[in-house]
Amino acid sequence: MSQTPLLSIKNLSVDFQLSGGFLTKKVFLRAVNNVNVDIPQGSFFGLVGESGSGKTTLGRAFLKAVNIADGEVEYSDDEVTYDLRNLTKVELKDYRKRAQLIFQDPYAALSPRMTVRDIIAEPLEVMGLTKTRDETDKRVREIAEKCRLNLEHLRRFPHAFSGGQRQRISIARALVSSPNFVVADESVAALDVSIQADILNLLKDLQKELGLTYLFISHDLSVVAHICDHVAVMYLGRLVESAPTRTLFNAPRHPYTKALLSAIPSLDPDDKGNALKLEGEIPSPTNPPPGCKFNTRCAYAIDICRKEEPALQPTGDDHEVACHRWEELFEEV
Ligand code: SF4
What we know:
The chain is of the alpha/beta class. The protein has two domains: 5-235, P-loop containing nucleotide triphosphate hydrolases (Rossmann fold, 3-Layer(aba) Sandwich); 252-333, no CATH class. Helix content is 32%, strand content 24%. The protein has helices spanning 55-62, 89-98, 116-127, 133-146, 163-175, 193-210, 221-227, 245-250, 255-262, 303-307, 326-329; strands at residues 5-19, 27-40, 44-48, 68-76, 81-83, 99-102, 181-185, 213-218, 230-235, 238-244, 313-316, 319-321. An eight-stranded mixed sheet has the order 6-7-8-3-9-10-12-11, with helices on both faces. It has a four-stranded antiparallel sheet with strand order 2-1-4-5. Strand 9 (230-235) and strand 10 form a beta hairpin. Helix 3 packs across helix 4. It is globular, with a radius of gyration of 21 Å. Iron/sulfur cluster is lined by residues 254-255, 292, 294-295, 298, 300-301, 305, 310, 323-325. Iron/sulfur cluster binds next to loops.
């Protein structure tokens, strides 16, 4: 992508240990495999895929919240450049201030025993970003107002609020340390559709006002189409397609992306629904198929697909795809 990347990852892999230990052989699951992607400063970058595709793990890798088995992750804003695999304790503390997470479930994410004021203030106190209670209160009120929370509610407990209000509290907590980069992991998935639109508009407004860069992780392509400017598609720990949102939705070049898009319900009463069906389940990452990882569900799979894994390659116009047959299938897909 052309703009300066705020985050850049190269050949990134993340493993989780499944079993083994001191005396027995360790067994690992590769959740993210050899991913390359840049997130431009100021972008609303979407990451989509089915459950089990590795998108949440990739988001956590950007936050230095999982162990990186291989590859590089570089963060670079106007003030600092960090190699996330080699941070000192002081740098890690500083990075936590610059990169934050908005949780998926606004009901589970907030402690029922803390007031809204204390929930939002906690990151400031843990990171030592304010010195006095007055200073903390001032910052809490400031960010609460930006997140359109009623200041009189700061003394209440989370159970008194609806899902949408709780998500505003979660957003205020994530933004109170003035981060540049925010990972929003399925941040509207637990909300009603009308509330979703409200929260998405708030995220967009905050992006403009505070100059934020988002990684927006979602399984819901209609939400991603509404809000993201670039979208990457993941399947079984790999990126299979990446393109500006309009391009990806109008002219997908990977059969998996096409199948995901076909599954979005149409509002057109004349649409007879020639959906490209996604059969079966995503294979287990403990036993991935050889070659293209999508070959067990792809209607276009041929011999080479079962033997060689296609690399993600540029196809023009900031569009990348990992498919042996994208050129010949392009018209059909
Ligand atoms: Fe389908 Fe083969 Fe392309 Fe994989 S490489 S998506 S199996 S056509």
